[in-house]
Amino acid sequence: MSSGPPSCEAGFAAVEASGDHPRHPRLVLIACILASSLGFVDGSVVNVGLPAIGRGLGGDAAGLQWVINAYLLPLSALLLLGGGLGDRFGSRRILVIGVALFALGSAGCAAAPGLAWLLAGRAVQGVGAALFLPNSLAILGSTFEGAARGRAIGVWAAVSAISAAVGPVLGGALIDLWSWRAIFLINLPLAAGAIALTLAVVAAPPRRAETGRLDLLGAILATAALGLSVWGLTVGAEPRGWTSASIGAVAAAALIAAAFVWVEGRQGDRALTPLALFASRQLVGLNLMTLLLYGALSGFLLLVPYVLIVGAGYRATAAGAALLPFPLVMTVGGPVMGTLAGRFGARLLLTVGSAIVGVGLLLALRIEGDASYWSAVLPSVLLVAAGMTGAAAPLTTAVLSAVDRRHTGSASGLNSAVSRTGGLVATALLGAVLASRGAALIAHLHQAALVGAGLAMMAALCAWWGLAGDARRAQAPAGR
Fold first, then answer.
1. Which of 75, 169, 309, 356 could form a disulfide bond with 126, CB atoms 3.0-4.6 angstroms apart?
2. CB within 8 A of 325, min separation 6: which ones?
3. Could you read off the pLDDT of 28-69 as tens digits, one per residue?
4. Contact 252, 228 (CB under 8 A)
5. How far, in Å, CA of 106 to CA of 118, rounded?
6. Cα separation of 384 and 391, whole Å?
7. Whether 81 contacts 219, CB under 8 Å
8. Domain 10-215+272-466, CATH number (from 3.10.290.10, 3.40.50.300, 3.30.450.40, 1.20.1250.20)
9. How many CB atoms lie under 10 A from the CB of residue 371?
10. Are 79 and 420 spatial neighbours (Cβ–Cβ below 8 Å)?
């Protein structure tokens, strides 16, 4: 995860049937926010901690990439399965299990004697997050109705953005004052509070009438395909270039992905990803846009603090604060963009917002080892934030509007998984940047910024193409 905007899993809440009203709905909202904040705080903190982790455990560039991707891989692949488990066994139960797993993984990361143990802990965190993220929002959906549901999701999105803002600064301070291990320990009190409050105030929501088999085979195939492709891309991006092993891994991933499509076709509407979703031109365009835009954004949010620490000599606290304007702009501008989306439709805002992100990434070409934060770094951060604010606000509702009601849960979950996959692939391709130092590091940052700008512009084209004829469709404000 990144310190970017909350993902389209807000749609999970938007489509849940309402259950019995709890006595303390505000406490339910707090419990769901505590659970979700675990993922947002941890994702933004780890980006700042990468240089210290590399020094502490002797990790090379590939190892540092896997510190991010060992978490994103199970999260991306198992997010939809986590929602299905909540439908089958109850959202409260699966949320508590997910938070407990996340806490266990966090404790393992904090105590890791070596990189392999750290990666194992990160994978456990990813599995836990795949369980609690969709189910925290499913609980919101079953607790609130109508306008109250929209307000609850808005509060969730705003607090998530604030959590992402505070995370890097708090994490940087902990690294400077103590150790990188502290950034994982801060998850433990959050997890304990989320579990205790959930058990105290959240009633077990009603299960859905359908109790068909879970698509476990689809989840296994998706995980294998993502894992092999990410490993192959990571190895291929290393200085030695592509080898027979990395090429073979990507080829095997393609075959497994084809098997996944075949299995999902046989499963029909019970599939992890129903193929009927891809009959919608709008949904295809929106998911392509999401993959490209969030890939570009993830690379930016990973590289800027890393380059500031390694290349410009920033302390971890200062590097964390460097990105603070990003979520603050998102929090303030989101409601305004939601109103504009209702007036002008999603197509224009998604297209223009993506293009502005591309321009902001081009401004990152001004970042040098001795460049001023105020004149070089801040303008890039502000413009990328402004573009993401325009693109993110209408995206959730646009995705939900692209399919019929029986597929809205699958569509929102798919879009959320796609956004994580964009970050997964981007991180896998950044090995050369993370392995370089000095002038080479700055040069690689500039190359990555150019590629990211190109991806953002392609995302703008995908949004314009996918929503053709839909420019004036009214969009209700929604958090992403």
1. 75
2. 378, 381, 382, 385
3. 888 888 888 888 777 778 888 888 898 888 877 778 888 888
4. yes
5. 9
6. 10
7. yes
8. 1.20.1250.20
9. 15
10. yes
Q: Is 1 exposed, middle or buried (0-12, 13-18, 19+ CB in 10 A)?
A: buried
Determine which helix (DSSP H) or strand (DSSP E) holds 38, and give its type and residue range.
helix 25-57
Residue 436 CA to its chain's centroid (Å): 26
Q: Which amino acid, 297? A: L
Each residue's pLDDT tens digit, 84-109 = 788 778 888 999 999 999 999 999 99
Distance CA 234, CA 77 (A): 18
137 and 12 Cβ atoms separated by less than 8 Å? yes
With contact defined as beta carbons under 8 Å apart, do 470 and 347 qualify?
yes
* pLDDT score of 272: 74
CA distance readout (Å), 112 to 52, 64, 231, 269: 14, 14, 22, 42
pLDDT at 371 over 70: yes
Tokens 């070409």 found at: 365
**Cβ partners under 8 Å of residue 175, min gap 6:** 48, 49, 52, 182, 183, 316, 317
Record the tokens describing residue 208, joined without a space: 């859905």
With CA atoms as reference, report the closest residue to 385 among 329, 432, 306.
Answer: 329
Query: Which helix or strand (DSSP H or E) is residue 406 part of?
Result: none
Taking a C-beta distance cutoff of 8 angstroms, is the pair 480, 346 a contact? Answer: no
C-alpha gyration radius of the chain? 21
Helix (H, G, I), strand (E, B) or coil at 249: helix
Dihedral, CA of residue 142, residue 145, residue 146 and residue 151, to nearest 10: -80
Residue whose tokens read 């019970």? 270
For residues 136, 85, 130, 389, the Cα torsion angle rounded to the nearest 10 degrees is: -50
Which position has the token pair 């807000």?
Answer: 10
Considering only the C-alpha atoms of the chain, give the largest distance between any 2 of them, rounded to a whole number of Å: 61
Find the length of the chain: 480
Residue 415 amino acid letter: N
pLDDT tens digits along 337-361: 767 766 777 888 899 999 999 999 9
- Six token digits for residue 248: 């073979």
Does residue 273 have a pLDDT over 60? yes
Where do the domains of the chain lie?
10-215+272-466, 216-271
Q: What does the alpha-carbon distance between residue 199 and residue 191 come to, in Å, rounded to a whole number?
A: 12
